[in-house]
Fold this protein.
Amino acid sequence: MATAEVSMNGGSGLAQAGKSLMGGKFMLAIGAAAVIAFMTVVWLWSQQPDYRVLFSNYSDKDGGAVVAALEQMNIPFKFSEGGSAIMVPSNHVHEARLKLASQGLPKGGNVGFELLENQKFGVSQFVEQVNFQRALEGELERSIQSVDTIQVARVHLAIPKSSVFTREQKKPTASVLLNLHAGRSLDKRQVSAIVHLVASSVPDLPIANVTVVDQNGNLLSDTGKDGLSDGLDPAKLKYIEDLQRNIIKRVESIIIPLVGANNVRAEATAEVDFSTMEQAAEIYKPNQTPEDITVRSMQSSESSSSTTTTTGGVPGALSNQPPAPATAPLVANDPAEASTVTTPVSSQKNVTTNYEVDKTVRYVQQPMGGIKRLTV
């Protein structure tokens, strides 16, 4: 009985050893298969092309045209997670952009002067004017969208019909709608630059007739109002804040060496006058002596006259008598002296002198930004 039990125990141990050996081989095979599968996945992933962005932020119309062109060129593509970008393999990015650019893609939703290249024969003058206006609007939109802050721009022009009557002529107007990038804004100088760009591109368009609005409905080109009740714009407020901050720093820099760094605190309030004043004055000095005054011009005139009296009779019977007998006078007399009596000579002399007017012309222009009151 004991021998039989030993033989039975030995057989069961061999069976367990065989089972354990088979289990180890099976686990080894599973591990090897897992390693091979992982390496295969890594190799396949490494063999996939690296996709790069071809175009982003495109319109639906441009996206469809770009996808159709990529399918014709047999270039693989895919969309980003949000669908806002078209991605192609990195080795096809530049090639695809050049081929699409030759086809005029993407158009960006703006039609420029290329619209006039496909004019049909026999179109009316009205259609030509409308196409020219659309082309001008598209070119302005492209120019405005080149600013980094602006994502999309729309331009609307209202150009009145020209008239032969001067009184009936109207000035054109323009409206600009801007869609800014998230978290971006335009300052006053950038808005003014856009206004001047549009006004300079349209003939006879004054700057006051250009309106700029953002995507939130805010009027950006309102130059007539400063936006605040006291007439201060952000630039003036910033000037006051910088002035007060500079005064505080100067005061603290004087006192800190005396009392210590943490023992002084300064505050400043400045009242600034932003009004501008221009003054013109003419000052005349009182009359001076002729020796101290500069002579501008002098005019002198002199005239003299004398009167002569001639003796003679009254025509008639008394004067019409035969001459007396001729007698030889002892002293010969001049006949002119006998008949003419000379009176004294009268003379007149006038001198006119013009002097320079002594005056002082003074122009005073006081710039804005003067300090009216300062409290520290």
Observations:
- The helical segments are 2-47, 60-72, 93-102, 125-145, 188-201, 234-259, 335-339.
